[in-house]
Amino acid sequence: MLTNRRTLLAGAGALAAGRAFAQGTGAPIRIGLLHDLSGPFAGAGSVPLSVGAEIAIELFNERGGVDGRMVQAVAADSQSRAEVAINEAERLVSQERVDVIVGVYSSAHAVPLAQRMQAQGKILWINSAIASAVLKGKHFTHVFRPTVHSDQYGEGSIEFLAEHCERATRIAPTQFKLGIIYEDGPYGVGVATALEENARRVGMPVALKEGYSATAPDLSTLVTKLRRARPDAVLQVGYNPDITLFLRQAKAGGLRTRMLIGHGAGYSQIDRLTETFGAEIDHFCNVDPAATQMLDPSRLTPPARELQQTLLTRYHARTQSNDPPTHASMGFNNTWVFLEHVLKPAVREGGGSIDAMRRAALGVDIPVGGTIQGYGVKFNPPEHEMAGQNGRSVAVVMQFENARSKVVWPTPIAGGPPVMPLPAGSPFALR
Amino acid sequence: MDPFLLEAIVNGILLGGVFALPVLGLNLVFGVVDVVWLCYAELVMVGMYCVWFLYTQAGWPLIAAFAACLPVVAGLGLLLHQLVVRPLLSSPPITQVLATGGVLFILQGGAMLIFGTDFRSLGVEMPPMEVGEIFVSGTKLIAFVAALVGAGLLWTFLKFTYVGTAIRAIARDREVMPLMGVDPRRIYLVASAIGGTLAGLAACLLVVQLDVHPFIGLSFGPITFMICVMGGLGNMLGGFLAAFLMGVIISTGGFWWNTEMSYVVAFACFIVVMFARPRGLFAR
């Protein structure tokens, strides 16, 4: 796949200016799309996130928009830099006159953006940035996040290990040592904190917990320290290229362990990881919301099933990807929830005002199985500690095998038990 | 001695080898031309893309891709000098820095337009060396040896050839050497080409260790500048030694404290050096 910033912005521009005007009746409804189309985050999931959102808007317009009024996307590139994200959001709001910004990949961007959008009384619809710190204790009224939050990553990872470690490795959870390494932004810190808290809750010892800069040129000392700490499982929270740098140096540095678990972002780009490491990443696990193709279609409602197939067909047509990354599902799913369940009723019943959108968002009530990622949607009210967070979002643990991912936790929806410990053929397996 | 500490020190020395070549190139250009190439790390990025493209897309043997990379980046260094630096030689330093900074963004943007934002991997690796409990990356070791050989060749060239002597003389006294019959414009060109070649060599060593993407320069560019200043801007031996010193500081700092703190320690050392020896640790 060769996707560059020009292509993406041009694609979004075509979305904005093309069929929408030709077919629409009435003024188009403008929304801002803010993603990292360049810089390190672009290759770590932000581009699939934006492509998913574009497909959702394209489909929504093809189905008639809101009673003939088309949605016009105004795309912006936050360039993997927080200050650019803030400036672009400001431009979208003040110059492009949008009332809603959809997207946002990085939690480091989402934290200041959420404050600003709330202060300006505009809607921020976060499709990806998962750090709990974005919403926790803030009581925002104009910021919504349909996807999972970092506390759920910590819970998923630790519950999964606690459930399987004794059966698979004959080590009790209270003896099963963890090595937690994380990029030092809000995303990494948020997930790592949740991992540590959940480990403490189940009595699982943390042998090493250490942060690093995602742009660090060398992580070999971290590998050395992990070898000294001898964790039974290494839990990494990272973007890219820090993940590939770590894995490459871990292999060269002789790091051996029983399980390696990633937590979204770079670990959800399975095509990229496979291109670099081939079968060496087989049986690694990853925690994230489920990419739609991992879910049994029969567990989804018929409309969600139809959307699932549409996304998979169109995403493949655009990118030739064999296993669309989770971010593609997140971009499509969460944008679709906004368009179909918030924008449409807000325009019909409240003229599309910001207040009408806010009311519509708080009224969304999608049951489990009603979205292409399996989870339902019901946003926490402003008095909730995590106001604006989807209270029905679910993170799953998936395991890589032959360049594909399969769900291995929660057990009731898993395709089977995980392969654990890492088999002897893995260069990362204990010998 | 704790074998893991020993491993961290060895890793630090090898990391110094990674920093050493770009530091040498940057110092050579600054010492001779008196202009900081702010886009130096982006020249390395272009070289990395060159190797990646020739090896993985054009199907060239790796050695041939490496060999082609050197003249390509050397040519880029020449172009940079002729088109951007030469017209600004008599301009204030801030103008020169901003101009080469502009080239940085042009190269980043150009790479993004041509190759996209994906991370590109060469998929080449060497088996690690295992000595007792210590693991040493084979790839890093080869890069380290190559850096030493490259530095040795540069030293031989500067020490034992007429052009090398002229380069050193220009670096010592830019005003007097033209009176001795040395054409500074020619020397500037040669220095820029050598600076580019060293960036190309650094690219060959880095592309087997790191994924290449348009913003890879952010990973090692800032630390390269810091090492140059720490060793004495324009002082090649000083920069070379400072690269290894900084590598060991980062590695052992990470071992004793943590990886985040290692860079804090490195920057703290840098600030202390600047207070104690403002012209650099090894300035004469």
TrEMBL record, chain A:
InterPro entries recorded: Leu-bd, Peripla_BP_I, TAT_signal
Keywords: ATP-binding, Nucleotide-binding, Signal
CDD domains: PBP1_ABC_ligand_binding-like (cd06340)
Residues of the signal peptide: 1-22
Annotated ranges, domain Leucine-binding protein: 28-356
Keyword ATP-binding included in the entry's annotation: yes
One Pfam match: Peripla_BP_6
PROSITE patterns to which the protein is assigned, alphabetical: TAT
Family statement: Belongs to the leucine-binding protein family.
PANTHER family hit by this protein: AMINO ACID BINDING PROTEIN, LEU/ILE/VAL-BINDING ABC TRANSPORTER SUBUNIT
Name of the protein described by the UniProt record: ABC transporter ATP-binding protein
Taxonomic lineage: Bacteria, Pseudomonadati, Pseudomonadota, Alphaproteobacteria, Acetobacterales
